[in-house]
Backbone:
């Protein structure tokens, strides 16, 4: 499958996503149902519900001192619509969760079985060169990260994309100038942040490899504790473990420093645009081109998108870490065992010879009676 001895991160990511998709595709109907329900739920909860709230706010402004006027009954009707949309959102999201859980169980079961077959089919030399603890850790990560990546794509990336598109459409209708600024900023900000986080992927790769090594050495020492004590090698093992732990912490420190720097850049970008959009909103309200309810609605959209884009960094980090960890197991799945049966090999059965006992007896020298006598048995070939 993978020809390059030193694959790039892009090659690793695509290979992991390909094999995960391979086991997801058979359940495409469940996937389609879940994606449709998530999209519909986000549109209802993020677009329709806030719009109804903005209508209610505008109505409340004109209702003041009017008593039970037609506006009063209109607001009651809007409140009922808001309740129905909230219930629809809840049911749709829950069904999407249940559908996704069913899909993930199916795919995870197949992934688990295939991973076990790949491990157990390796040669004797493979197991002598590996830490058992590292192999278990790689298997667990591969199995766990399928669910992590699926949920990130279904319930994070998809929902974020739908929210941003819905916000862009609604804001552009209300105010083309603000909508244009919003779309331009989201595109530029997203591209820059994805580029910066991708540049830091080597730090995540190193941290993952060091973590696997620490787990393997720890498992090896614990499983061979009696041997280590018998040969008096505790001090040597302690020094070796301290070295790999220090390397692990150094790798994680570099990873954390890079992440904090990127968070700093994110805050600057979000703060600048937040101030700009607030200024444009004030200008639009002052000119009468925006109502108070619509202005509040737009700020809600912006706040939600800001929150999504703030989480974009964590989302990218989480997916990249999961892909890095899964790649370690994929390397094993892709490894061809040193010893393979020939495709032309046939099973060998016993066709000749048989086992036969005739009148066998058994007893002890100091005993007068035998344990048994005259035992006969015949076993035919096959």
Residues:
């Amino acid at each position: 499958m993978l020809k390059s001895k030193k694959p790039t991160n892009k090659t690793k990511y695509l290979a992991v996503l390909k094999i995960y998709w391979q086991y997801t595709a058979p359940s495409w109907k469940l996937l389609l149902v879940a994606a449709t329900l998530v999209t519909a739920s986000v549109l209802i909860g993020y677009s329709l519900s806030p719009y109804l709230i903005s209508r209610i706010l505008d109505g409340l402004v004109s209702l003041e001192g009017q008593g039970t006027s037609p506006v009063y009954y209109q607001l009651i009707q809007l409140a009922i619509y808001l309740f129905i949309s909230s219930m629809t959102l809840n049911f749709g999201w829950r069904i999407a969760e249940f559908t996704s859980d069913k899909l993930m169980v199916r795919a995870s079961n197949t992934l688990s079985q295939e991973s076990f077959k790949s491990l157990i089919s390796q040669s004797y030399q493979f197991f002598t060169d590996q830490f058992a603890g590292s192999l278990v850790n790689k298997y667990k990560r591969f199995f766990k990260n399928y669910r992590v990546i699926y949920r990130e794509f279904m319930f994070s990336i998809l929902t974020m994309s739908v929210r941003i598109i819905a916000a862009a459409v609604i804001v552009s209708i209300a105010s083309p100038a603000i909508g244009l600024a919003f779309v331009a900023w989201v595109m530029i900000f997203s591209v820059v942040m994805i580029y910066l986080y991708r540049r830091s992927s080597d730090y995540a790769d190193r941290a993952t490899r060091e973590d696997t090594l620490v787990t393997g050495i720890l498992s090896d020492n614990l499983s061979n504790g009696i041997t280590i004590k018998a040969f008096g090698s505790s001090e040597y093992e302690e020094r070796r473990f301290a070295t790999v732990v220090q390397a692990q912490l150094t790798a994680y420190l570099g990873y954390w420093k890079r992440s904090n720097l990127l968070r700093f850049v994110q805050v600057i970008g979000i703060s600048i645009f937040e101030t700009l959009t607030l200024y444009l909103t004030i200008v639009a309200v002052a000119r009468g081109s925006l109502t108070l309810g619509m202005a509040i609605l737009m700020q809600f959209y912006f706040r939600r998108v800001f929150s999504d884009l703030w989480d974009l960094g964590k989302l990218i980090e989480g997916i990249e870490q999961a892909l890095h960890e899964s790649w370690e197991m994929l390397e094993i799945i892709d490894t061809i065992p040193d010893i393979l049966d020939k495709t032309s090999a046939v099973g060998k059965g016993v066709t000749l010879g048989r086992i036969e006992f005739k009148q066998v007896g058994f007893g002890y020298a100091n005993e007068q009676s035998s344990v048994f006598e005259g035992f006969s048995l015949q076993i035919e070939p096959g």
